[in-house]
Design brief:
alpha/beta, seven-stranded parallel sheet, two-stranded parallel ribbon, about 15% strand, binds NADP nicotinamide-adenine-dinucleotide phosphate
Length: about 280
């Protein structure tokens, strides 16, 4: 019997991974959900224990008896290296047999603003001596399909480079691949790039047009224009600057991480942009 623990089960990805483990035949009694507010995950079924990355005292009891842990990267920017390192330390102390971590695409060559938290977490995991699996998640396709109403209302997709390739994939596909990796001890020591079929922002506009019948064009803007638009929509200076830095990273091609790891782990082709847009419309 192997006990799997998944952090962040109040979030989108953690919840999906639990569902994928159950769908792959893992008994619910062998899956433990970890959440900083367990009451928010009461509908998950199965056990949910409190684990707050920022509260070391919560981590030791949460990880008791856990064999394989998925550490879903946290959402508190600037805090995450310390938080993730605390979880890795607690996993070592608890005798967890393997820790898997959701990192960022192309972590070795990605100069974007998120890498300075993901890369040190990867390094801490490698240095821990624990058997590990690193799952470098590319952009979620939902980052784009979730904006479909705005794209249609504005008639355009704005970006800094319409031709930059982005290996976006749906959260559901990533969750399926992550569950497969958790279940396969052969993935110990591996680093996977979970990238879907590459998209571009110009291609996004064209595919929205094809799928909806409403013309949406791609419009290139400068970083200054994007900053002004974000500020105009109410974002504070720091947040707007962060979003622009992310878009500059996308424009450089930091998220172009060609790999067949995602379909290989999934055992099927990844969901395409067109399929994801059709699902978002349905
Ligand atoms: N690849 C991408 O495009 C992309 C986009 C956004 C985020 N991400 C990263 O991928 C992760 C998972 O994505 P998602 O869509 O599932 O994000 P999400 O829905 O925001 O879920 C994040 C999860 O992390 C938990 N968390 C945050 N800080 C925590 C802490 N101190 N202790 C314990 N749990 C904590 C949250 O708990 P609460 O419910 O209590 O807040 C939540 O369950 C995100 O956290 C982020 O690091 C990736």
């Amino acid at each position: 019997m192997t006990t799997y623990a998944i952090t962040g089960v109040t979030g989108h990805l953690g919840r999906l991974v639990v569902g994928e483990l159950l769908a792959r035949g893992v008994p619910a009694t062998d899956v433990v959900g970890l959440a900083r507010s367990p009451e928010m995950a009461a509908d998950l079924g199965g056990a949910v224990r409190r684990a707050d990355y920022a509260d070391a005292a919560s981590l030791d009891p949460a990880l008791e008896g856990v064999d394989v842990l998925l550490l879903v990267s946290g959402s508190e920017l600037g805090q995450r290296v310390a938080q993730h390192t605390a979880v890795i330390k607690a996993a070592t102390a608890a005798g967890v047999r393997r820790v898997a971590y959701t990192s960022i695409a192309n972590a070795d060559g990605n100069a974007g603003p998120l890498t300075p938290e993901h890369k040190p977490t990867e390094e801490a995991l490698r240095a821990s001596g624990l058997p590990f699996t690193i799952l470098r998640d590319n952009w979620y396709l939902e980052n784009y399909t979730g904006q479909l109403p705005q794209y249609l209302a504005q008639g355009e997709v704005r970006g800094l480079n319409g031709d930059a390739r982005i290996g976006a994939a749906t959260r559901a596909d990533m969750a399926g691949a992550i569950a497969a990796a958790l279940l396969d001890d052969g993935t110990v020591g591996a680093t996977f790039e979970l990238s879907g079929p590459p998209i571009t922002l110009a291609g996004l506009a064209a595919t929205i047009t094809a799928v909806t019948g409403t013309t949406v064009v791609y419009r290139n803007v400068t970083a200054e224009e994007l900053t002004a638009a974000l500020r105009g929509s109410g974002l504070d200076e720091g947040t707007a600057g962060f979003v622009v830095a992310l878009e500059e990273s996308v424009a450089r091609g930091d998220l172009d991480a060609p790999s067949d790891d995602l379909p290989r782990l999934l055992g099927r082709p990844a969901t395409t942009l067109e399929q994801a847009l059709r699902a978002a419309l349905a």
